[in-house]
Amino acid sequence: MMDLKRPHKTMIEVNCQKKYGPIFRLQMGFQEMVVLTGYETVKEALVNQGDAFAERASVPFFEDVAKGFGIIFSHGENWKVMQRFTISTLRDYGMGRRTIEDKITEECRVLIKTMETYAGGLMFPPNKIKHKSILLILISIISGKKFCFITSRFLRLLKLFNENIQLSRTFDMLIYNMFPRLGALLNSCKTRLNNRKELNAFLQATFKQHLSELGENDQRSFIDSFLVQQRQKKKTTEGYFHYENFRSVVSNLFAAGMETTSNTLHWAILLMMKFPEIQRRVQEEIAKEIGVREPRTEDRAKMSYTDAVIHEVQRFADIVPSNLPHATTKDITFKGFFIPKGMQIVPLLSSELHDESHWEKPYEFYPEHFLDAEGKFVKRDAFMPFSAGWRVCAGENLAKMELFLFFTSLLQKFTFQPPLGTAKDDLNLTPTVGFITSPIPYKTCAIPHS
Question: Which of 156, 134, 163, 148 lies closest to 254, judged by CA?
Fold first, then answer.
């Protein structure tokens, strides 16, 4: 019964058929899971009873990648310690503040200059250059270092991250999770293992370099703060600040921070080409409220339409439709159903982003979802692209800042159009197959504003 390329679609359809309701048990291969669909059900689990659903499920692919360390795929007390440290440290280094905004604005300038080399009628794939910009911001935050130019080392790092993300989307990964013993026969698993070894070598070298330069009174980066904690915790029984956690935490920040934001921007450009009248309204608001100066995050408060468009891009794009699987921390009776401790839980974000009882046009791109009758921006309860509750995305504030600044900076300078000979109606909005959804590869033309 399952669409193995897009299993979340089948899960939503099962609920829509009203045959099983918003909560049902499912078995895929050796994996048994409970699926939660619809805004009310997902919110009740992740927010109202978040402590009971706060564990991360033991999925073969995740366990193979992280070994239970880091933030995203870790478990129990290890996750709590790494989550607290990561959120507090990112705040210390300016996440959501002017210092990070300046870094993002600087990369916006570089991206605009790069796109100007394609400007006019030249076609180019926007995903490649956006990945570079987002990764440079993350490197600056995590390591405290700035790449003044694109080195071969940087390009190799970018290639490894991109390739691993692409491999995580493949049909092979779904088969591997269902039948782990087949992993040795799958080429994508072998490639991912080799890539992981190379990434690990890079992170180990970075770890050693920062360790040799470390001064406890002169911490300059996220990595420095981790190493100081490692030194301090060696004197106690709390031994969570070791190399395996370092490797996994940094990998988590790079992979999650780069892929979700760059993918959303990739969708944004495609949707602006598909709906030029919406692109035009955004540009009119930018011209009225910002003019020719560089956008700043405080501008968002007076730009209701632009803010609504960015939110609708996130809702429509549905970047992580199945969410990351949770697990129960204890036996629980949830909405009349008994769920044992350790059960894998799939809280479908896609189901609440397309919940017909909360969205007027759930399967259309419709910025008015986030506007009231007077055209003012309104928050929507069923908007949870970063998940919610205890396992909410640690980089949510950074992502919001990046999306606003990159989107407004690009539309301030360019109008995006389909390549010559391609009509807007021919643009394909079908997402790629995989755990993280992105648009089918496309090319665009950036027409500069005079």
Answer: 134
